[in-house]
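We examine the record.
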Amino acid sequence: MTESFDAVEVIMAKRDGHRLTDPQIDWVVDAYTRGVVADEQMAALAMAILLNGMDRPEIARWTAAMIASGERMDFSGLSRPTADKHSTGGVGDKITLPLAPLVAACGVAVPQLSGRGLGHTGGTLDKLESIPGWRADLTNAEILAQLDDVGAVICAAGPGLAPADKKLYALRDVTGTVEAIPLIASSIMSKKIAEGTGSLVLDVKVGSGAFMKEIDQARELAATMVALGQDAGVATVALLTDMSTPLGMTAGNAIEVTESVEVLAGGGPGDVVELTLALAREMLAAAGRPDVDPADALADGRAMDVWRRMVRAQGGDPDAPLARPRETHEVRAAA
């Protein structure tokens, strides 16, 4: 097969500050997915993008090329609207765990396709895998069936969903290009758009424990992702939330699950509860249910019921004891 472009020429174009053409972007994403563009070449291009950036049309085309590398899901047959949430990650960010069952308990289906740890941040799937028996990998048919029955699913994106992103996601983690805003935005939004959710709430972290250290960076990332979502017909909103201190009182897979269950039981740290409810209200409003108060579903146990059903549906035991850290260190705030 004769290739349309040469990888080195594409790398040099971005290295020298030029914008990439639509055909160049389409080719390089497809060729990387096929293995024609090597990891070291894509690493060089990712670094050039980090240093020289992309304009909005470039980012939109890169995102579209990532989506086109795989399949698209369709939740239009469900009896309830869908809403998803994505966080850019931080220390102790366990919000997805109580949030997905809470929103489902309020009548909105939550197809939460989550990831693993990236950089210094913990991954939602890594945390849930501390529950004995729980499995992250589901077929599309299993995802649809669980959404229809339980109302919420937290799982890994299937191999057919934006496979280009799966390769690039892992590469960015080991090449110092995690913070590239065009690559963050296209990575998140390619999966969310291909996933087929009807609405999306973005939790963009800013502060010392986030990838975005400065508020202007966070605003740029949020605006870029909202524009990508809206252009694709997905109702998208973003919140900028503080990550200058860890969320909650724990950082670690199993102990963050335990803390999340405490929130679902009506307790838990105040900051985790506050952010969970804020994001739930945004998701419900985006899905057309602004009249529902998610605090009621926490108080009356409906959210906990959905959590237990969700865990069981994916092979986990919600009553199983979770691992405890062998060593703990308590850090107290100054009086």
Residues 179 and 211 are 6 Å apart (CA to CA). The first strand starts at residue 84 and ends at 87. DSSP finds 14 helices and five strands in the chain.
